Amino acid sequence: MAAQNFIVPSIKEAPSAGGSKIELYSPKFFLACTVGGVLACGPTHSLVTPLDLVKCRSQVRPDIYKGVLDGWRTIFKAEGLRGIFTGFGPTAIGYSLQGAGKYGLYEVFKYRYGILVGDENAHKYRSLVYVTASASAEFFADVLLCPWEALKVKMQTSVPPFARTTREGFAKVMKTDGLAGFYRGLGPLWARQVPYTMVKFASFETTVELIYSTLLSKPKSEYNKFQQLGVSFSGGYIAGVFCAIVSHPADVMVSKLNNLPKSEAGHKQAGVMDIAKELGFKGVWRGLGTRIVMIGTLTALQWLVYDTFKVYVGLPTSGSTDEEKK
What we know:
Layout: E1 2-3, H1 27-47, H2 49-60, H3 68-84, H4 88-117, H5 119-124, H6 126-157, H7 166-176, H8 186-215, H9 225-259, H10 272-283, H11 288-312, E2 323-324
Antiparallel strand pairs: 1-2
C-alpha cells in the first residue's frame, strides 16, 4: 500500500480540501481546528458534569454514595437540580480553553514534526509523530486548563460545595491561596492529561486506519461524510476506553490534591507522594468503571463534534488518509 500525502511538505504545495476555500495546513486551517477543538471539548465535558461530580466525590470519599444513581438522588435531595451541575462553569471555561490548545496545537505540531523528519519518515513512523505532537499540544493546553480544573475539583469534592458559582469560587481561591492555589495540581494534571492525550490521538488515528484497512472494503474517499463520521465516533470510543485506563491513577491524585485544605502555619502541605501512600494501589483505581463510561462517551462525542465541524467548513474528516489497496 502506498501512502498519499501523509504530511504535506509545504503550505504552498498543500491542496485545498474538496471544494473548501480553506487550504490545508494554512493559518485558516489551524484556526478552524482550534475552533473545532473548543466546540468538541467545552460542551461535551460540560454535558457530563453530573457524572463527573459523582466520580470526583467518590474518589475522595469512597463511601459517600452507593453508585451514580444514588449519588444523583442524594445530591438532588440536598442541593436541588443546581447541585447536580456543581462545577459546570469552570468545566465549560477550562475545557473550552484546553480543547483549543489540544486540537489546534496538535495539528500544528503534527505538521511541523512531519516537515522536520520528512514525508517518508513521517508516514513510516506516523505513530511516533502522533504521540509526540499530541504530548506537545497537551503540555500547553494544560496550562490553560489547570486553574479551572482546580476550581472545578474544589467545588465538586466539597460537601456542601466550596462555592455555588464560578465567580465566588475564583474569588475564594485567590483570597486564601493566591494564584499558586490554581496551579498546585499542574504536575499531577500533566501526569494525567499528557499520557491521556497521547493515547487519545495515537489510538484514534490507528483505530481509524485499521477500520478502513481491515473492516471496510473501500478506501476512505469512497465513503460519504456521514459514514466517515460514524468511523470517527467508533474510533473515538475505542480510544476513550484506553485513555480512561491510562490516565485514571493521576485523575484520582488530581481530585485528592485539590480537595486538601490549606495547610496551617508550621505544617507542611501534603504532596503527591503523601497522597499516593495514603491511597495505595487499590485507591488510585477507585471509580475506574464510572470513568471508563464517562471518558469513552466523551472521547467519542469529541471526535464526532470535531469532525462534524471540519466537514461543515469543508475540511476532510480526521484519521487515516486514503491508501491504495493492492
